[in-house]
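Appendix B: complex inputs.
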Amino acid sequence: MKLEDIKVCILRIEGTNCETESYQAFERLGAKPEMVHLKQLTGQDVRESEKRSITDYQILMIPGGFSSGDYVRAGAIFAARMKTKLAAPMEEFIREGRAVLGVCNGFQVLVEMGFLPGIDGIMSPVPQAVLSTNDSSRFECRPTLLKYENNYNCIFTQKIKSGQVLLIPSAHAEGKLLFPHDRAEQIYRQLEDNDQIVFRYVDPNGEYAGYPWNPNGSPHNIAGICNPSGNVMGMMPHPERVFHRYTHPDWTRGFGSEIGDGRAIFESVLDHISKKF
Amino acid sequence: MALEGLYKKIEAPFPLSEVLLSKADDEQLKLIAAESGTGLSLDEMKMLVAYFKDLGRDPTEVELQAIGQAWSEHCCYKSSKQILREFVFGIDSPRVIDRGDAGVMHFDTENVYSLRIESHNHPSAVEPYGGAATGIGGIVRDVLCMGCQPVALIDPLFFGRLDTPNAELPKGTKHPTYLFGGVVSGIRDYGNRIGVPTISGSVVFDDSYTGNCLVNVGCIGIARKEHLYKNRVGGIGDNLVLVGGRTGRDGIHGVTFASAVLTGESETESRGAVQLGDPITKEPVIHSVLEVGRRKLITGMKDLGGGGLSCVCGELAFAAGFGVEVQLDRVPLKEDGLLPWEIWVSESQERMMLAVTDENLEEVLHIFKFNDVEANVVGRVIPEPLARVFFKGIKVLEMDLKFLTGGPEYCRPREIRKPEYGTPEKAPARDVSHTDALLELLASENICSRDWVIHQYDHEVRGCTVLKPLQGALGHACHGDASVLKPVEESWQGLAVCTATNPWVMAIDPYRGGKAVIDEMCRNLVAVGARPDAFSNCLNFGNPEKPERLGEFHEAVRGMGEAAAKLDIPTPSGNVSFYNESETGSVMPTAVVLGTGIIPDVRKSITTDLKSDGVIYLVGRTGPEMGGSAYHRLTGASSPKVPDTDLEVLRDAMKALLIAMDEGLVSSCHDISDGGLAVAIAEMCIGGRKGAELDLESLGPLPEEAALFSESCSRWLVEVPRDSAERFEAILGPAATLIGAALGDELLITRGEEILVSASLTELENAWRGTLWRLMGGSE
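Resulting structure:
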């Protein structure tokens, strides 16, 4: 399908707050994003003209923020509300090979819903991971460097070179990806075997490093993962914040291209969808 | 009992009294003012007596409370208005679009931006987390009610020294580390949750703030011109729609609390004056308000802040020449049993009042319901300029709005002290080498790295932050002078944002201090390549009823006004916070400005970190003006001689620098402020991971410490690529002095043959980085 026909659902509830820049990232590339409140998908309190179906879209993005305040575990309230009405349509959406992207709070929502890591089917009945409180116990807004470690299973990263290091900033208080203690190593091996690990935190020399380059203490420096079929991706850092070079933290020190490091993620998924559908 | 018989019960299905002012003597009037918590003075009570005598009746307690709110210093600026009018209100510019709850400025042909800064000092001193959070909530509403999308937060903070021994704390005062930690957490949890980046601010530590910390909060908004609104109703018959949070007993008498000095009992007596914030009610309120604004479904709006419904209803209607009728039963409450006066003056958070015609009402209510935000019609605009308020069918208030919202205005006595230029300078109390002095300054609380704070605030949400608060090489970024936003998707034009303050200079000489604050703001904005465009100010002073305090205020405002007028920088909004005193005395006179500048193309923004092996110029003249300097505080010296600003020199230097920057001749630039030239170059080295060699011989016959550490105004350090040096010199002329170059991995400052400072990059960075982490806990 044509780029301009690709419809992107930017899903929000109260407390979602990265929807504008997420919308702009898709719009700048020529796709058709739309900001959609969860109630428009569930049908509550809305007029007929405001109702939407998830099947209207090829891409679903859950942006960052503090959905419903995140006063319980991050993403848990948003996920609970989605699950009651949208679990089945979402499963179908993913089965059809459409794309789901969760950034920051969106990643937390996808994990809480059981779509990531998704090692026992499209949607696990109970979450298989959690994005836990940062080791520093603080909110961390800082530049982070991500090494691309996927072998092209993930549809969001086809335009990124293997081993490339991207500057994509982080801003979260709960970003440490943990698995159930008794099966942590086993799940980690599965993720590696399934080519589900997409990004890891590295330092300016490209080496795996601790805090602050790994801002949350995530084991194995994991910053982003995808599901086994590669069409659901979650990541803590914010690619929509570095669409242009001019929002990189050190752009005044010289650069090769005006293109920001986050742009490739949006380009990759649009390219994939336009070829697939 | 002295007040017996002065409260007469009115027949009503709820407790309601008439206050028999007509029968009270002076002592009783004072007692009534105190007991009701209104804080009105005897003279003000007498104005009330006269007003109600003409009406042939006595006020209800609701009416008494309404006056108490409207006439508080916080709401009506009764002590400051006359001085502000004399020096700053007159600075006009065609770039100013509106002066409402926030000031509105021209941005480009299609867009405007708005700005405001205000204080939330007393609530934060009692409850730092909630006080700071609701401060953010309030300033965001000020920008929102102009029709603007909030796009940036700015927080200048002032506390006692973090290493203050507990034994030295006055009774009832909380430790500075507790206050600092709580305030930063409050700003973080509120600002991050509503998705508005915190891009600028400052933290100052000094003993004078131990008993009364200062928490100033600023906000910037952006809107298309056609989406701007006035803080007034459209016409008769408009519905008043109250949206957002519910009304409760939190935040009762907030404005009167803000208009009195803090005491050891403030904690127990005034906890109820601190409001409770809820960012997750606010975030959808912002969404919904902007949507009804963009779709032209409202005629005007205003936020509920100090004085609650009482102030907002009166001011919204009166600004349009009309009146208002309000049904208090329709106000949704957090709990049952609130008395009508409590509903009328509560300052519960997250509330806005919209004026909506009958025709658009249904659509407006739908939009709020869609976003899960409560919205209720609570009143209606009437032709007579009156406020008329009903509760359960009983009229509890009827007052003339001109009287109610007018408020008294005072020309209070002031004592203007001449700075004591005759007094001799006091020499440093200890001998310290220049290198050690530099390292100690870098490590001092007031100069050291703010990264402990900055990384807790989301400064990049919305994806528009082009220059961030920390600038430079990854992992080594150092303080910038201003942050830059690219607020409009279709345009490369940028908005630079900074803060400026120098209480130490202002404490010695408020007039020069006032000029110096404007100077610093200009330096910060120009350093990133922006033309200073406007400023908002928050003036934190002591008790204005003391002539000496009001004298300081007068002189500070005079200095600021003179500088701003000469430089053509209007101030479309501002805030005065008096009574910043506790049992240990007044805070230093603290004028804070939030400055904004326009940069035609954000791609030309300049940061502080050294970039290449360029040559380094000093722009501006250095004098032996060490009064109030960080060096004097460090060494225990003192001097009455504070830096003065030559406004023409400043104006010309700014103009020339901006031309050079626009031509691409400048690779880095840093203003010279706290700690002088030596600290400025050290910061440029740290951020750039690059050393420098400077020779200060050409600065003339100055004492060595003045050459290194003087804080003379209107100065910048500028790095220029070698092949641009000739052109740069041609533009700057004698204002620029070549003093050295960026090279190596060491900072070496000499004067002729003599070495003044020699330190490695690692020494500089280690000194600068660790202090707040050490004092506040946590590790990098």
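Residues 245 and 254 of chain A are 10 Å apart (CA to CA).
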